[in-house]
Amino acid sequence: MSPSSGTQGKRALELSAGRCPADASEVADLYVLGRLTEAQAEVFEEHFLQCPECAEKAELAYEFVAALKKYQR
Fold this sequence. Notes:
By secondary structure, the chain is mainly alpha-helical. It has helices at 24-32, 38-48, 52-71. It has a domain at 24-71.
């Protein structure tokens, strides 16, 4: 699949609920920022609910975004 095929211009990511993405930190960042497709977000959610390492990366991304929003004012 090409990067824009079916993702409306969003980069295609190889995601599986059964294994960590190649760059879990990047995927966690994209997830938190709402930059994954709905299907990609669902697969990542299913994965990080079972994977403490990816769940931690998602939590760190949430904390980072929250801190940025706090100091944006």
